[in-house]
Specification:
2 domains; 10 helices; about 45% helix; single chain; alpha/beta; Nucleotidyltransferase, domain 5; 5-stranded mixed beta sheet; about 350 residues
């Protein structure tokens, strides 16, 4: 029986836990509908310009219980009504993953309910199935986040073909590192996006030439570093005077690469549907460019709501829902994996 038919007959209640990095999140879904999605952020990392793994895992320990309680309260569900517990197995920070995994296992044992391990990257893509309109298979997905940049062909809910990935820095990492050079707060991506709206991409940075559909952004980071160093020697106030144009130029260098590769992949694999996911997919220029690409090439475009793009447990819950329907349960020996690969 197909999953789309089964979903009309089975209405599982899934409690989901996401703790792959520095956000502690719990969500509750019922019959594939998200009833609650609670996220506790960790502001402490702003002081260090990046995520400190040890501080992240400690914060998860203090946040996870109240976040789970709040998710259940908002969903108007009790633990007795939970049919399965889903959690992020990886990839992510090991200490953070362990906190979420152990909490999920403890709940599954206490409730005598199935445990469902979820790949964080697969969940980013299946976030498209939280709200309507939902894409039909197959479709091409560009996943862009702080730690990953990937092009994936989705054949069905559980069959994903990875055709391109970053060989060094991810797009989100490039935004953050370049933003730090400009003196912007962490995470810098949203600040670059905001400043770029008042600027123009007058400064040209070279694009890394990587074969096929892989990505590389470390060269951009180095190019920006040397460019700023040389300009500041001439004018110590160069960044302050040109912040908007620098933001627009850096953003264009990153987004142009993402869109061009997506266009080339869609053409090669004859995709009529494209989608973007991950935290960087909130970027206004990326959204606009992907929508424009879809119109120009007559492709359907799917972009998840912003609250489901950054790390969140709702996307874990939706994967848990489909895995529950397919009876894809995990045993209690399943271990978190910081470099978890796709099946």
């Amino acid at each position: 029986m197909e999953l789309k038919n089964m979903s009309n007959q089975i209405m599982p209640c899934i409690l989901a836990i996401e703790s792959s990095c520095d956000d502690t999140s719990c969500a509750v879904s019922f019959g594939g509908k998200i009833l609650s999605n609670v996220i506790a952020n960790q502001e402490v990392h702003r002081n260090y310009g990046g995520v400190v793994p040890e501080l992240a895992s400690r914060a998860h320990l203090s946040h996870i219980l109240p976040v789970a309680h709040e998710a259940l309260r908002l969903a108007k569900k009790t633990l007795d009504e939970v049919d399965a517990v889903a959690f992020t197995q990886g990839p992510g920070l090991m200490g953070s993953l362990i906190v979420g995994a152990q909490f999920a296992k403890g709940l599954a044992i206490a409730l005598n309910k199935p445990l469902i391990a979820v790949n964080h990257m697969e969940a980013h893509i299946l976030a498209h199935f939280i709200d309507d309109p939902k894409p039909e298979f197959p479709f091409l997905n560009l996943t862009v986040s702080g730690g990953h940049t990937e092009l994936v062909i989705m054949r069905n809910y559980f069959q994903q073909e990875l055709i391109g990935k970053t060989i060094d820095d991810a797009a989100g990492e490039a935004f953050d590192k370049c933003g730090k050079m400009l003196g912007l707060p962490y995470p810098a991506g949203p600040h670059i996006d905001r400043h770029s709206r008042s600027g123009s991409s007058v400064f040209k940075f070279p694009e890394s030439k990587v074969a096929d559909f892989d990505f590389s952004f470390s060269g951009l980071k180095t190019s920006v570093l040397y460019f700023l160093r040389d300009q500041i020697k001439k004018d110590p106030d160069f960044i302050e005077k040109n912040l908007e144009d620098l933001a627009a130029s850096i953003q264009s260098a990153i987004i142009d690469t993402l869109v061009r590769k997506t266009d080339e992949a869609a053409k090669k694999y004859r995709m009529s549907r494209i989608a973007i996911s991950g935290g960087v997919s909130i970027n206004s220029k990326l959204r606009a460019e992907i929508i424009a690409l879809g119109r120009a090439k007559q492709m359907e475009v799917f972009i998840a709501a912003p609250q489901y793009c950054t790390d969140n447990a709702a996307m874990i819950a939706i994967v848990g829902h489909y895995k529950y329907l397919a009876k894809m349960f995990s045993n209690l020996e399943v271990s978190p994996s910081p470099r978890l690969e796709r099946r």
